[in-house]
Amino acid sequence: MAKSQDEILEQQIGGMGGEESLIGKKLKHKEAYGGKEHVSDLSNEEQESFNRFMNRRNQLADAEEQASISQGWIPVDREEMGERSKFYPEEWEFFIKPATVNAIKNWTAIDEDRPDQVNNVFNDIVRSCLRIDTHSSEGAGWAQLNSWDRFWFILKIREYTFSRGESRVKFTDACENCGEDIEFELTSNGLFYEFPDKDLVDKYWNGTAWDIDPREYDVDHEPITLYTPKLGKDAAIIDWAIARQRNNQKIDETFIKFLPWMCPKLTSSQKDSRLLDQQIQKAYNEYKSWDLDMFNFMDDVITNITINPSEKLRQKCPYCDQEVTSAVQFPSGVKVLFEVQSKAKKFGSR
């Protein structure tokens, strides 16, 4: 009996996705009360009580993890994110799961000539396949993901979706050192990023935002707080911009560069667009109050605290053993990211 297309897709995405070695892997948990405790002065009875507390806490944490895994969620090791991990609260834990058959169908139907459609499907993949455990009453979802991490998480989701190596994205480029043709494969660990200077991070990053005093740089302005761009804020700004265009209202494109950094959160709601307008208007009033020195300072700050995701892959050349880079290429378009193998013949040449 012939298998349906959905059955073929489900076989190719491999059930749980991800590597079997990750099943049952223990997450790293901080010790009680948010950090290391001074327990050297505890009595034997108190020490035993403390040990029982820690054991129970770890058992509960492991049980939560196993429950997530049983539902198809795979823990992401934050160490894989490198320095980018610093820009999330320490207690946050990330989980991903393979893309669904329906999500893959939506992906393959996108019009690559429409950036808004590509952006929406990218967000749909992250929205349905990413979960963030904050270990607090304040939840977090795809909207709290830093903008520069979206493509990395999409590649991670892709790798778990095609866990047996199906649908690899490969291309050939010449080594910039020896000239030999070498093969590149698009993977999450092949991406690299440009980071802010370490001394700036150490001095101004408070763990959740950037606290900067312009007066240290001879700019007459009160201290400022800047917030990392998030997927939710990006989506809200796009909705706001589309609404303004629809109403033939002008958009200050220079202001848009600063807007995601100026607001801790932007709320986009079809029921009440006034709240979003008010949030953006407040930021715009602040932006318009800047004199030339403050504008130039802010422009310099944003340039230097942004994590720039490079559109290049990096690896060692097998011929000269030197590090080589190549621009990310999609030989048959961005759809190839979630393209599945099929025995059906292609209709036409487009």
Structural features, described:
- The protein folds into two domains: 5-34 and 46-169, no CATH class; 196-306, no CATH class.
- It contains ten helices and ten strands.
- It has helices spanning 5-12, 44-70, 101-108, 115-129, 150-161, 198-204, 231-246, 253-262, 273-289, 292-305; strands spanning 74-76, 93-96, 130-133, 170-174, 181-185, 191-194, 210-212, 224-226, 308-316, 323-327.
- It has a three-stranded antiparallel β-sheet, sandwiched between helices. The protein has a three-stranded antiparallel β-sheet with strand order 6-9-10, with no helix packed on it.
- A hairpin with a 6-residue loop joins strand 9 (308-316) and strand 10 (323-327).
- Helix 4 (115-129) crosses helix 5 and helix 8 crosses helix 9.
- It is globular.
